[in-house]
User: What shape does this take?
Amino acid sequence: MTGMKRKNHDPQHGWRKTTLLAAMLLLFANPSRANTIQPLALSLQAPAPSGGADCDHDAPAAGGGRGPVQESEHRPQPRRTYWLNSDDLASGATACVLRPSGKIDRLEADFKATSSISFATPLGDGPFHGANNVYVTDQRVQDHELVIRTAKWTTLHHNCGWGHKHKFDLLRIMAQSCEAVPLEIVVQDLWDANFHSRVTSGDVLRIMVMSAGRTVSGAVVTLTSENGWRKKVITDNDGRASLQLIRDYYPRRWTEFSRKHRANFTLEAEYGEERGGMHNGQPYDRVRSISTYSWHYEPARQDYSSWSAGLLIAALSMTISGFGVFLYRDRRRKPYRKVKIDE
Assistant: This one.
């Protein structure tokens, strides 16, 4: 027929449409079920008692005052302890740490007695120097659905006094994944070759969702900033996605601005499969995996370099103005002359 154009078939368009539909069904098909399971997460201190204040914001900060507890990659400790946001874990919950050398150490923990996990990080330049990835995994069957929750935390065990000879070791400086973990989030470029945190507001996070060493396409990834800003994306065919951190650090007065201010953000990945089986004698016909990962970021250089430039310009302007006034007054000043009158 004349006057009509033929549309070209785009296979990528069909895949995106199918993936988006699957993600929407995952998020909204059964909201009552989704709200019954709390994602498992690790933090630097114990959660507040039921009905109490939020510890992350009401506890004293490491540098004094009030604020979220932070962890410095420049202060190595012989032992690390992290806390779970829940003590409701199944009896078969497991924990492990992936060392910078690639070795996996199983951690013994009694989650019924305490909601924390602890492991050794001996001081000195050795197999523990670098990024230590900690994982806690909990599995249970609920409403004929196997729910797998994984919490991940990365410890940068580093001291500049140990040197930076590992900056040429790609295995150590690059973000690693653990094949023993059901679902995890891997983010590139969170630290530099010297194991110094490098994330600032405005940066684009390059994310990859992995399951037992394989990439996962169609996973829903949610970024939540410390101030509550949220953004969702879906991983592509290669299990990758990108998320940009917004600039959300605006102190009441610019005199209170600190270029070393750190804020936390949390990444959460969720993926569902129509797959049946048995777990601890209980049947299930669907699997839902949820994984969390926390990190921190600082103000972008542009946020304080422009302020510093303004101060520099103001100081130069005052200096030039003062010098100009001095020259003007010096030229206007009449030299003293002695006049002798003969009578």
In short: Residues 1-9, 27-35, 51-67 have pLDDT under 50 and may be disordered. The two ends are 124 Å apart (CA to CA). The helical segments are 11-28, 31-34, 55-58, 170-173, 301-332. The first helix runs from residue 11 to 28.
